[in-house]
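Service request form, structural biology core

Requester: graduate student, group of Dr. S.
Request type: structure prediction, single chain
Budget code: on file
Notes: please return the result as structure tokens.

Sequence provided:
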Amino acid sequence: MLSRKLIQEPGVLKKPPDESESTPIKLSELIEASEFVSVSDLDEHQAYICKRTGRIISVSEGMDLEEEVEFPDDPDLDAYHMVPHRRDLDLGRRVALSFVAEELPAALDKARNIFSRRGAYRRFRQLLQATGTLDQWYAFEERATVAALEQWCDEVGVTLIDNDRPS
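Core staff response, request fulfilled:
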């Protein structure tokens, strides 16, 4: 077993760099990449974080992106982290019902009924518009997305270099 030493600077303890650790990335860039991936329900869009450089590379089937990037058809996932789709982060029904429970508790049964059938998000949006809470929903959803992405980063070992949380 390999032991790891801590490098000590005055008042600071740091671990030495590890080849398995990723280069830090900006939260804002990760959010943008996750939004790009989540635009498609059919997994047509992917984004990868290069562990060595921290660069985020977006790829899309059937769509030319502005920037030409040399990227393998089958990337080595030892060298890249695949940016998760919002469905992989469980940001759908659970988050919507949490919002309703917090902001519109009297409408919770109605919201549960909405999410029991197809076309739920259209009807959910209509509920939010009718109650004047659409802007609050967008802010709540953004906070939930940031929290889920931060948790994903912790789980896969990605370090964020900024924390520009939405207010």
